[in-house]
Amino acid sequence: MPVYNCRASLGRALESVYEQSLGRSAGAGAIEIIAVDDGSTDGSGEELDRMAAARLGLTVVHQPNSGGPGAPRNTGIDRASGEYVFFLDADDHLAPEALERMCAMADANGTDVVVGQYVGVGRQAPVFPRDLPRTTVAETPLLYNTLSPLKLFRRSLLERLGLRFVENLFSHEDMLFTAQAYFGADGISVVASYDCYYWIDREDGTSSLQQGGAPAEQYFPAISEVMSFLAGRVEPGPLRDRLMLRHFRHEIATRFGARYRELPEEEQALTRVGARRLVDAWYTPGVETGLWPRSRLVMHCLRYRLDDVLAEIVATDPDGPPPPTVVEKDKAFQAFPRFRDPATALPDHLYDITDRIGTENRLTEVSWTPSGLRVIGRAALSGVTERQETTLLLRRRGEPSAERRLPARALPPDRFRADIDLVADETLDDGAWDLYVEMRVQELTVVRQLRPADDLEPPERRLVRGGRAAVPARRGQGLELRVTAAQPGVVMTLESADWAADGVLRITGHVPSALPSGHPVEASAELLRRQDGTVVPAKARASCVPEALNLTAEFDLRGCDPGRWTPWVRFTVDGVTIRVRPPAPPSPPRPGPAGRLRQATPYRTERGGLSVKITPARAAQAARRFARRLRG
């Protein structure tokens, strides 16, 4: 751990190592901590000495300030004796199981480098989608996006390759080290399923990168060495372009941000000269394709020495709102300075964003209407002020050719409303239909999956034509409309349950539906005796009204034998019969007579259904008890 003027975070960083599960599972001596104080002036060195006196396993080394973290890291490597070496910055900290999981991954797969999942705090950090037991940079180019040394290295790898950090460099001293380790390693592992490393930006803005990094005279030769090493290990082609893109995006384009405008004129000139050399050596059409217009324009101006145009490009804020988007037929351009300026004649492709135009896409409301499902949301091509056409697309999962296009009505500003008609004769086939939105300006068409707002709750399922059910639901980051057979999930909503007359139980309720009013429906009902399956028919009627299928059933209990009876209601829609069990109300009806010498008691089952228990009436029970006593 290199330490320079970070006393406030030392305790957290070291405590995260002391709390490692590896130290508990493999013994206290499994972890050796080497903290190298690189001439701190804020008391960090004295704080390290105090901690070392109180805890075993911490070795503190003091040395004069070297001007960067490379020299103290090298001191640590020279003193390390473990099988593995991990580099921890004093601003950051580890998750409790980080070292155990990474060492286990290396042990199991024989790999020389293990990358643990990063968590950025106040900064962006690379994120890996899944664990990779064994890979290479060629197989997983995403690895090259992180050239920091905040990883686990097999110490034999460092000694075999003689790897050490560039010294006396304020920033980016680690890139060549990590690149050489990647390409010289016998396999690389990734632990993505566990957040291992908390990568923290200093709140006071004093880190090397927050201060702008090393000066141009030191910075660009260091970056050139890394890019030259990469070019020597990877043949020209798509893979080299993919890896070189990382350097043009993060090490070159970033030097021409807001901080560039604050540099003295001499440092600006040195920056242009240093960056131009890298552009002349390694910038290719394949790299250019991966950059956004602002960065493309910077590289173009550097290559062709258009310093006056470069000044205008640099004056745009890379972190601010992008310039307007201009659409011409099926192309989109970001109108950065000098776009279509005949005096400069910069090529259009520098400004082209057709394949990566941004969108504002959010589903804010989903609700049922008498005829189907209504969706309301926001959909717009970013930066485009022209009028656009919006279309809702339903695509059946697994069948790309199965698509329904529904016109959307514009709701200013940049909102739309679309209705999925489930009443029309032509209904959606069974299956899962994902919702997309198509945005069109002139001949430019962009399709994106609709993303529900975080607080959006899809409505309940509804009965539709053909005796099926339509169920809107979240799926991943999108919304699906699933159309299925209705029976498994149809639920009757109870409105009332009471006695219509002595021994006649009347139940009214409804099933949510998207059937048109007056749609033909037939109904029947029955009582089922649970002991032996005896069935007693009952009366029922049904009718379709807006957004509901109303049901009424009357169960005559007067002819039913003692026992437990379950009421069921059936209704038939478009030739499909669906059987539902009425739910019990919170307070079931009071007991009532069920014919001569019998009593009916409605009750709620454990699963919330309505049942009726029929027993002999109390007077009859008393008479029978008296008769038994007389016989006795």
UniProtKB/TrEMBL annotation:
Disordered as annotated region, ranges: 580-610
InterPro entries, per database record: Glyco_trans_2-like, Nucleotide-diphossugar_trans, TarS/TarP_linker
SUPFAM superfamilies: Nucleotide-diphospho-sugar transferases
Bias (Pro residues) ranges: 582-592
Domain Glycosyltransferase 2-like: 1-149
Domain called TarS/TarP linker: residue spans: 217-305
Pfam families: Glycos_transf_2, TarS_linker
Protein name (database record): Glycosyltransferase family 2 protein
UniProt source species: Actinomadura miaoliensis
